[in-house]
Amino acid sequence: MNILAKTLTSAIPTLFLILCGCASSGGEGESYTDSDTPGKQARRGEFPGCKPSTETAAFLLEGRLPKYPRRALRHGESGFADIRFSISETGDVENTEILRATSEEFASNVKEAVGSWKFQPATNEDRPVTVVCAKRNSFSADD
Questions:
Q1: Domains of the chain by range and CATH?
Q2: pTM score, whole prediction
Q3: What are phi and psi of 55, to 5 degrees?
Q4: How confident is the model at residue 110 (pLDDT cuts 50, 70, 90)?
Q5: 3-state SS record for 58-108
Q6: Whose CA is closest to 80, among 64, 69, 95?
């Protein structure tokens, strides 16, 4: 199995869960797809690690996964990008900021993908609230 196929089949679900810190939605079984790469799917899920404490966590509705940079994949390079972003009261991603990354390629691909995400917002006292999330997206050429 070539490295691209191996990476797409084994690493993508893990990368999504690492980035999101999310749990599967449990029974719905719905997913979203990166239309640029067939088969790149991940289950929708909650973002329980966002601040402040909320009655319900923000819930990922749609978006696409970060792409593994082609040059890095070709050269077997692993890396990561840490990102902080807000999920607004309307469920939009705002204020994206790369905190740390091993390369600009990883950083820009993560920032672009996270910017495409749409959420059902977190709530507190039955009202939508803005939350701030910080997540790591790891890319491993060994998986």
A1: 3-139 (3.30.2420.10)
A2: 0.67
A3: -70, -45
A4: very high
A5: EEEEECCCCCCCHHHHHCCCCEEEEEEEEECCCCEEEEEEEEEECCHHHHH
A6: 69
What is the structure's pLDDT at 20?
A: 42
CB crowding 33-58: b at 16 or more within 10 Å, else e: ebeeeeebbbbbbbbeebeeebeebb
The SS3 assignment for 7 reads: helix
Residue from 97, 101, 93 nearest 84 by CA: 97
Token pair in block for residue 137 = 């997206």
Crossing angle of the two packed helices 3-10 and 12-20, in degrees rounded to 10: 50
β-bridge mates for residue 135, sequence order: 83
Strand partners, 86: 94, 132
Buried b (16+ CB within 10 A) or exposed e, 110-142: bbebbeebebbbbbeeeebbbbebebbbbbbbe
pLDDT digits (tens, 9 = 90+) for 1-50: 444 433 433 333 333 333 344 322 222 222 323 333 433 434 456 665 56
**Once rounded to an integer, what is the mean pLDDT over residues 119-139?**
92
